[in-house]
Amino acid sequence: MDGHRRRHIPKYSRFRHLIPAISAISAAILLLYCFLSFLAPSPDHFHHFGHHTSFDDHTIDDDTPKAAPIFEVPTSSKMISDRNLWSTSMSKFYFGCSNATSQFPKAQSVTRPNRYLLIDTSGGLNQQRTGITDAVVAARILNATLVVPKLDKKSFWKDSSTFSEIFDVDWFISNLSKDVKIIRELPHKGGKKWSPYSTRVPRKCDERCYHIHVLPLFSKKRAVELSKFDYRLANELETDFQKLRCRVNYHALKFTAPIVKMGQTLVNRMRNMGKHFVALHLRFEPDMLAFSGCYYGGGEKEIKELGKIRKRWKTLNISDPEKERRQGRCPLTPEEVGLMLRALGYDKNVHIYVASGEVYGGAHTLAPLKALFPNIHSKDTIATKQELLPFSLFSSRMAALDFIVCDESDVFVTNNNGNMAKILSGRRRYFGHKVTIRPNAKKLARLFLEREKLTWQEFSSRVRVHQVGFMGEPNERPGSGEFHENPKSCICEKPDAKVKLVGNNKYIDDDDDDQEEEEEEEEEEDGIVSNLRYLFNETNVDDVPLVYEENELEELLSD
Ligand SMILES: *[C@@H]1O[C@H](CO)[C@@H](O)[C@H](O)[C@H]1NC(C)=O
Ligand SMILES: *[C@@H]1O[C@H](CO)[C@@H](O)[C@H](O)[C@H]1NC(C)=O
Ligand SMILES: *[C@@H]1O[C@H](CO)[C@@H](O)[C@H](O)[C@H]1NC(C)=O
Ligand SMILES: *[C@@H]1O[C@H](CO)[C@@H](O)[C@H](O)[C@H]1NC(C)=O
Ligand SMILES: *[C@@H]1O[C@H](CO)[C@@H](O)[C@H](O)[C@H]1NC(C)=O
C-alpha cells in the first residue's frame, strides 16, 4: 500500500526546493537529485496510464530509503546528442536494387497461352498489398497470365473499393509488362465468361509447391482462381523472384492519383510544422487489446469491458495478464511509446502524426502521450472534413493516406507487429534505411515495469541500449524473417561500404539482465499472434474451419 502511494507523490517541483535543503542523512541521494534538477529545471508531470498499479506492489522494497518519485521526464531532451535522431548512420552505404538479372527472360517468352491466374486477396489494405505482390510472382512461377487481383470487400474493414480505385491499374500493368502479362479481366469466349477452377494453396508455398498444387489444374481449366491469397508464397525464393517481389511492391504498386495527391498534401502540412516529423502507427483497438490478454491499467472498468469482448472467443482463455506483459507480448500503450521516444532523445516539441483506428479509452488514453509530446496530429486535425470526404467512407483509402504519411515521415514508429508495420519497415529499408523504430517489446516491458525505481537517466539509457538493433539500421537482425519486412535480396551494398563498416553497427544483444529471467525463452511473437495460434490450434493460422467471429477477428488483426 505504502509503495503504491509513494508512486503518486506530488510532482510539483520538489527538485528545486531540495537543492538548498541538503541534509546529511540522504546526502548521496540528494546529490543525484541535484544533478537531475540541473538537467531538468522544471520536471513536468504526466498522469500515468498506470498499467501495472495493481500488479507490481511486490517490486517495491520498503527497506530502502526513498524520498520521492525519482522517475521524472525532463522537459527537454536536448542533452542527448550522441546519435543522429533523424537518419540511420550506415544507410549511405546501401541502396535498393531490384533490377532483374540477365538470366530472367522477358514475360513474352515464358507466358503460356492457356494459363490464366485469378487472385482473391484477403485482409486489410496492407495484407492485401502483400497478396498482390506475391500474386505477380506466383503467376510468373506458373508462366501464367495474371488477371488484376480482386480486393477483399468482405473483410473486417468492409471496403467496397476495387483495385483500380486504390491502385493505379494502368501503371501496374505497364510497369510489370516485362515480368508478367497482366490483363484486367478474363477473356470472354463466344460471349460466355470462363468459370475458373477455384482453390487455395497452402501458406508459404514455394516454387515446387505451386508446381504440385496449381500447375496440374491448368489441364482441367484454362483459368485457376486462388482464394484468400495472403502469405501464400514462401519467404525464401530464388533471387530473381525476390527482386520481382520488390519491383511489384516498391515500383509497380502506386496508389491512384487522388490518393497520392491528398497524401502528399498531408505530408506537406506535417513538413511545414517543423524541420522533421515523426509518424506513429498506433494499434490500440478494444478488440485487439481484449484479444491480447493483457491488462492496460484501466482498473475495474477495463477488466469488465475487455472481459466482455473476450467472451466472444469461447475457446480463448487467458489466465495470466502479468506474464503476458513481462514477456513483452502486449502492444505498447501510447504513454509507453511516448516514454520510449523521449528516452531515445526526441524532443518534447517534435510534431507527431498519429495513424490509428479507434483507440481504446480515446482521449483519456492519449492524454499521457500528449503530455510528453503536445504536438500530436492526425488526418482529422490537419485536413478538413471536406478534403477527406472522397476517402473517409472507405477504410482502405483512409489507410492508404496514413500509409503515405508514415512512409514519408523522417521517423516511423509503431506499437505493434501488424502488416502495416512490417510492410513499411521493409519499404523504408529499401528506400534508404529511413529511421524505423520497432519497440524491443520483451526488453522494454520489464523496464517499464520497474521504471518507478529508476532515474530518468537510468531509464533512458537502458531504453537506448535495448533499442539497438530495432531502429531500422542496415544489417539489423531481421525480425521474423518475413520477406516483406526485410527484403534483403533487394538491398545492395555500395563497393566502398566494406571498409567503413568494419567493427561498426554490429547488432548488440544486451542479455545483461537475463539471469532474472524466470520464464523459458519463447518464440519472439506478440501475444496476439500466439493467441491466434492457440485459438486455431495450429502453427499455421489457416485452413481450419473458422466460425464466423474468429474469422472476423483474424481479419481485424490483418491490417
Ligand atoms: C536498373 O535498371 C534501370 C533501367 O531499367 C537503370 O537505369 C538502373 O541504373 C538499374 N539499376 C541498377 C542498380 O543497376
Ligand atoms: C516456365 O517457362 C520456363 C521457360 O520456358 C521453363 O523453364 C519453366 O519450366 C516453365 N515453368 C512452368 C511451371 O511452366
Ligand atoms: C517501373 O517504375 C520504376 C519507377 O518506380 C521505373 O524506374 C522503372 O523503369 C519502371 N519499369 C518499367 C518497365 O516501366
Ligand atoms: C484454460 O483455463 C483452465 C482454467 O484456468 C485451465 O485448467 C486450462 O488448462 C486452460 N487451458 C489452456 C489450453 O490453457
Ligand atoms: C490441438 O490439436 C491436437 C490434435 O488435433 C490435440 O491433440 C491438442 O490437444 C490440441 N491442442 C489444443 C490446445 O487444443
Automatic annotation (TrEMBL):
Pfam families associated with the record: O-FucT (PF10250)
Which organism encodes this protein? Lactuca sativa (Garden lettuce)
Family, as annotated: Belongs to the glycosyltransferase GT106 family.
Supply one GO BP term.
fucose metabolic process
User: Which residues, by range, are in coiled-coil regions?
Assistant: none
Listed Acidic residues bias regions: 509-527
Keyword terms, alphabetized = Carbohydrate metabolism, Fucose metabolism, Glycosyltransferase, Membrane, Transferase, Transmembrane, Transmembrane helix
Give me the ranges of the annotated region Disordered. Answer: 504-529
* UniProt GO MF annotations: glycosyltransferase activity
Q: Which residues cross the membrane?
A: 21-40
Q: What is this protein called?
A: O-fucosyltransferase family protein
